[in-house]
Design goal:
Two copies of one chain form a homodimer. By secondary structure, chain A is an alpha/beta fold. The first copy, chain A, has two domains: 59 residues, Helicase, Ruva Protein, domain 3, CATH 1.10.8; 212 residues, Rossmann fold, CATH 3.40.50.10880. Chain A is 52% helix and 10% strand. Chain A has a six-stranded mixed β-sheet with strand order 3-2-1-4-5-6, with helices on both faces. In chain A, strand 1, helix 8 and strand 2 form a beta-alpha-beta unit. In chain A, helix 1 runs antiparallel to helix 2, helix 4 packs parallel to helix 8 and helix 5 runs antiparallel to helix 8. The radius of gyration of chain A is 18 Å and the shape is globular. Chains A and B meet through helix 1 and helix 2 of A and helix 1 and helix 2 of B.
């Protein structure tokens, strides 16, 4: 998916939030924002938002000297969601259709995204999670996912954000684990999952976890490691979580199911949907 | 008031909205946004938001070849508010304290601001206006304004936006008109009032109207015309409408009453207030 002019103010809002987290000195923050603006002014709209986002956050990390500004926030999100794990697990097991409920929760947890939404408080997370079961979801898509999971021999599950990864684990526990490999980003970017998070929430104990070799808040294949690209091409089915993975893989021809919450009007429009809606969809080419 | 990093994404949101109005061709829109970004990347945070806003909108007008992109929106706002004029006038005349009610309506109408709020629909305007009488307002400040208006011999009333200007007229009708000169911007910028709007809503029929000689969405004295600066220095009292006038005059030592709605967290913080609150305040130095 290409970038639209609507995305620019969002990039800058994200950068402002990140620089406030990463840099203490207010005048240094202004310098860093100037560098980010220069980056953005040179951007090519034909590139995906995720590529541009990667560049912005790289500039921020370099300029701030902080290689992982969101580490503390990621730890807090993971702890918060791990504390709710038994409750969520119970909710899934007692559901009429546990797989569907796990899909719902995995998508609902996609709200934990500091790229699209700043100042996400814990109450919001709790509300969204408790509403997960009530919100509309395409049941036919759930059935299609069930069939494709059954048919597939190898499944790649592309993670998205910290915190949210706890619900990815819950969904994976409802799937044939032996087929699945979980994928994290190759380097810290925003509050996206890296190997640290996969270990923190016990993902590494239930399935193999690999990283994609790149620091974008999505999956920009041409910059990912050759090892990851081979695994991606060879997979029978790919489950891709979140807007970032959608934005970077929407034009890809592989067999991909996207699970996300539409967090901005541009994405909502792509799905003929509205902001805030839960989306489970295989994009047809 | 200086600029904060929080203002950057707002500038870009404003620019995106303006370029969508001013330019039809999507790829040309992207080019123009690139030029705006270059402008913004060179900005100096010590300058006021209004100076930077002026530069952005100048770039937009030049790049789009459209000298007044908001003309149609301004005409629509004026017509909409003029149609409500008899209703508002009745509401003021039947109020226990007509001056206070006129102040309330003049501030409530400050919501008609396409800089801070895009896609403002007519229903929103109607709701805000009908709530004007119920919203908290500092009564002591109203009394102080009443006294200072009485004491003053010359009053400058600095206008802000089209549409809103109808309520400025309603407030001026509650004041000693012979003391008042109304001020519009020197050139079109955003949906700010120019002489065209003052004529369209009949302001020119009730008080003298002058322009400030500059195209900022506020009052940047150093760039205003010498004639306006003289009038400004000589005035006993200045009534300044809207965020733009506040942002550009908050450090000025003249006798200024600011009437505005706080439309962003940065401004709300300046007044120890919250977003959406009606503000009538004389800034003490």
């Amino acid at each position: 998916m290409r970038t639209y002019i609507d995305c620019i103010s969002c990039f800058l809002k994200q950068a402002q939030s990140a620089v406030t987290i990463a840099v203490d000195d207010p005048s240094r923050r202004e310098q860093v924002m100037g560098e980010v603006l220069e980056d953005v002014s040179r951007m090519n709209f034909d590139r995906s938002t995720v590529e541009i986002g990667a560049e912005i956050h790289r500039t921020l990390r370099e300029a701030s000297g902080n290689p992982d500004p969101y580490r503390e926030i990621k730890d807090r999100s993971n702890r918060r969601m791990l504390a709710l794990y038994p409750h969520f697990s119970q909710q899934i097991q007692s559901a009429e259709d546990p797989l569907e409920m796990a899909v719902r929760m995995a998508i609902a947890a996609n709200i934990i995204d500091f790229g699209a939404i700043q100042n996400l408080d814990e109450e919001t997370i709790d509300n969204v999670m408790s509403e997960a079961s009530a919100i509309p979801l395409d049941r036919a898509a759930v059935e299609q996912l069930r069939r494709e999971v059954e048919r597939a021999e190898t499944i790649l599950y592309l993670g998205d954000n910290a915190g949210e990864i706890v619900c990815d684990r819950l969904l994976i526990e409802q799937l044939p684990r032996e087929k699945i490999t979980f994928v994290v980003r190759g380097n810290p970017v925003l509050n996206d999952v890296t190997m640290v998070d996969a270990e923190a929430v016990g993902m590494t104990k239930i399935v193999p976890v690999i990283d994609n070799g790149f620091d974008a808040p999505g999956t920009v294949l041409e910059f990912c490691s050759p090892e990851f690209r081979d695994r991606f091409q060879a997979a029978d089915l790919i489950i891709a979580k979140g807007q970032g993975n959608y934005e970077s893989l929407s034009d890809n021809q592989q067999n991909i199911f996207f699970l996300l919450k539409a967090k901005c009007p541009v994405i909502a429009k792509e799905f003929n949907s509205s902001v805030g809606v839960q989306i489970l969809q295989k994009v047809r080419h």
